[in-house]
Amino acid sequence: MRVWLALLALVALTGARDPILVPEVSQHEVDLQQGFTGTELLLFGAVLTPEGSRAAQDYDIVVVLKGPTQSIVLREKQKVAGVWINAASTELRSAPSYYAIASSRPIADIVDDKTAAIYELGLKWLQLSPIGAIDPDEQARFSSGLVDLNRRIGLYREEEGGVTVKEQVLYQARIELPSRVPTGIYTAETFAISKGRVVASASSQVEVRKLGIERAIANFAEDYGFAYGLLAVFVSVAMGWLAGRLFALI
Amino acid sequence: MDVYLPIANLSVNGLIIVALGALTGVLSGMFGVGGGFLTTPLMIFYGIPPTVAAASAASQVTGASVSGVFAHTRRGGVDYQMGAVMVAGGIMGTGLGSLLFNLLEQLGQIDTVINILYVVLLGSIGGLMAKESIQSIRAERTGIPIAARKRRHHPMVASLPMRWRFYRSGLYISPLAPLLLGIGTGILTMLMGIGGGFVLVPAMLYILGMSANVVVGTSLFQILFVTMATTMMHALTTHAVDIVLASLLLLGSVSGAQVGAQFAQKASPVKLRLILAVIVLLVAGRMALGLGYRPDEIYTVAPL
To answer: What's the pTM value of the predicted model, to 2 decimals?
Structure first.
């Protein structure tokens, strides 16, 4: 009896007619190496009814690609005695190193603010976890500063209308990764939204990593600082010396 | 030509970096300054993270100085004894600079301090050099020689205890003076990612009173070893030396340094000094404006 009740509750909670999302990412590994100048990820998939047929209604699709979060200090410059200096700062424990969102329609038209905040749909709703007590106005100023900064260098993106849905089944979104993407495990989340409610979600992972000589150099610099320093000194002296010899011959 | 920089974590146009290196190399060979005072700000302007820019510029200055030191050695323009004393001071200065760097970074004031240092140092030294070279040029034109300086070195230098003979520099002074000078430039190298040549050369001329034909060579000699120490210090503490970036810069700067050194022998030293003074003053002016203008980025991010 209890099992039946539990099952019933499950069905009632998830909604029997909620669709199934079958998401896929064009590549699960992004390799940072010579020649990498940024890339474009294709996030695509299908929305189906539980029976596996075409969903007979329109869903809004929202795709979020998020990089690993970092603890950062965000500093703000203010004019003090005629000079611009870092005058205020805040510490954020979970600032995403990369965040891109694409949706089939503007987020504000798809969900209400509360849902958007819960699912972190949009740059406005990033959970940055500030450390210490800070008043909301100041916090809002800092977050919009961070968002603005990262948007301009291409690490935060918001593309309303970036998702196209075909025949109520297939959806796709292109998300750009600039050359300065940080490494780490990224999560690609897809949400199917109907009447302001998230009815299905699915996520997959993308690994951004350095490969080959680039990885070797980065690891070498991090793990063997002394030897790496010697190598850097050797390279610079050798190149200077070589140039000196070559020009002496001329 | 796109090149991915493994430490800076971004890709850049390699040719631009090589050209930047060449520009500083020419300055280095011509004037005996490291040229870091131009590379570091230009790299930051190009979008390279400031720490990586400062750390990698140091190794680029090393390369440019090696070929410069060779070029000046060939014509006997290096006082090794004086150089050694200043190197010792420089290495001490690098250590002190590293401590100061960490402290300022924690306070979040490193950028402002660096900018103010640039303005004050470049402004005062540029002004001094410009004044002097204009006086000499005027004296040449009118044929009236300027009155010879009475004291060759600063009175404070003469009051220091213990005296050594520096034959090539034509000096009999206390080694403490060049040692302190070395410490000062070592701190600047670590903080600003510069060789310190633009401070060193006038200080050697006007404070120590070294004979002019060994000033450039000896300052390059000191810069060579101090920037090596700086690179090591960065590799050990900040891990921000990007060897790919440094190699690209080096490619340009070592060739530039040779060209610059050849040029320096042909051009008149007074005019060279005036040109350097103008460049230095321009950079200082730009920096001073930068302090007062609203910066492009109000917000900056640093890892916690």
So the answer is: 0.75
B173 burial via Cβ count (<10 Å: 0-12, 13-18, 19+): buried
Q: How far apart are CA B284 and CA B198, in angstroms?
A: 12
Q: What is the pLDDT of residues B73-117, one digit of tens each?
A: 877 778 888 888 889 998 999 899 888 888 888 887 877 887 788
Does B298 map to a domain? Answer: no
pLDDT digits (tens, 9 = 90+) for B195-254: 677 778 878 877 877 777 788 888 888 888 888 988 898 888 878 889 999 999 988 888
- The answer to the question of residue B299 being in a domain is no
Residue B161 lies in a domain: yes
Domains of chain B: total: 1
Percentage helix, strand, coil, to 5, in chain A? 30, 40, 25
Alpha-carbon distance A64 to nearest alpha carbon in chain B (angstroms) = 23
B66 touching A (Cβ < 8 Å): yes
By Cβ distance, the residue of B66, B235, B300 closest to A232 is B235
Q: B91, B228, B299: which to substitute to probe chain A, counting the most A Cβ within 10 Å?
A: B299
The answer to whether residues A243 and B67 touch, using CB atoms and an 8 Å cutoff, is yes
Q: What is d(CA A27, CA A13) in angstroms, rounded to the nearest whole number?
A: 34
Per the structure, the complete domain to which residue B219 belongs is given by 2-292
Phi, psi of A200 (to 5 degrees): -155, 145
